[in-house]
Amino acid sequence: MTGELILLKQGEMTLKGLNRRSFEARLERGVRRRLAPLGDFDVRSSQSVVYVTPRSGADTPDMTAAFDACRGVFGAASLTLAARCEKSPDAIYETAREYLGDALRRAESFKVESKRADKRFPMGSIELSQYVGGRLSEAFPDCRVDVHTPRLTVNVEIREDFAFVHGGAERGAGGLPQGTAGRVVSLLSGGIDSPVSTYLAARRGAEIIPVHFLSPPYTSELAKKKTLDIVKILSAYCGRLTAELVPFTKIQEQIAKVCPEEYATVIARRFMTRIAAIIAERTGAQAIVTGENLGQVASQTLEAIACTNEVSPIPILRPVLTFDKSEITEWAVKIGTYETSILPYEDCCTVFTPRRPATKPRPEKIRAAEAALDAEALIADALSAAERIAFD
Ligand code: ATP
Ligand code: MG
Fold this sequence. Notes:
Distance between the termini: 37 Å
CATH superfamily of the largest domain: HUPs
Helix content: 40-55%
Number of domains: 2
Radius of gyration: 26 Å
Number of helices: 15
Bound molecules: adenosine-5'-triphosphate, magnesium ion
Strand content: 15-25%
Structural class: alpha/beta
CATH topology of the largest domain: Rossmann fold
């Protein structure tokens, strides 16, 4: 047996014809980035599979930890730990016996499933499965062959240079490799929804510029830290992230002072959108992502969404628009942002929430209410005081 490695299989990327090589390179980069702290690995791809092999050296890396890290890589449809061996039926049998021996002893039933990416391999898939399966059932007499509902499937893959044996692949993070879909500005609060919407946009290959609005002294240092902690968690998936922190106090105070209270939230949201669009222009981003969710709160009715869209020159993407709260929460738990999101620090929106917000704001009313503000000056001030913090 030559040793253990990780195989990651691409999903939709194979459809992308000409872009394929650059997609592959980005997928490899995503893998390398996540594995960098865990040891020295050789990462290369061939025929829609990324092979991750520990380089021989003093320290043998922890393959379970490496596998766990690979679970988060965007663009991998499935992944598995596997053993590599020479492309001969006997070597394959020996490898399966050794590598999956414990699993075969524990399982009550098994079958062998073979795939031939290399069609020159002299044995057919069925014949190979029968050969390996026959010898394994002699070696593990307590584990019976069950081709319909086996407890364990011994997978054999015959590829270009080697054969691989594994106990079954699991689903990967899916999506498309980081950075293959262009850049977006993502409005990130400390809440549950926007970390999930940010993650989902990134998973489709978007490079993320996180933008957060804070309103000190109404919002505390802890609220800021909470959001930065979320950016840090997201950067494990998204790669390097440079968060833009925009002071929003003056804008909210002015809105509270001169606009009808019922419109405060929608107007605040319009200001966030305008500022996000300017940051998008500066950074080459082509869309704005938010964690808005249809009907969840007064500012997320179709009427309110129309009022926000009106001020944006670029598309606003809302990845969780149609999710139920429980579905968003499941995602938040899965990606590891939930525990931080539920910390009780006030967000700039909650501080200025009107008692009775308008649920069906009319754009002309909102425009009229906003006329009392010097929008340009407020926006310019906020942007000039913005702070950037990078996470690797
Ligand atoms: P979340 O759970 O993401 O906070 P929410 O359910 O609290 O969302 P709202 O407060 O109405 O909903 O915010 C809607 C969206 O506006 C958020 O998902 C986020 O994209 C953006 N947003 C709200 N507050 C901020 C903020 N302080 N900084 C940046 N973006 C924000
Ligand atoms: Mg919120």
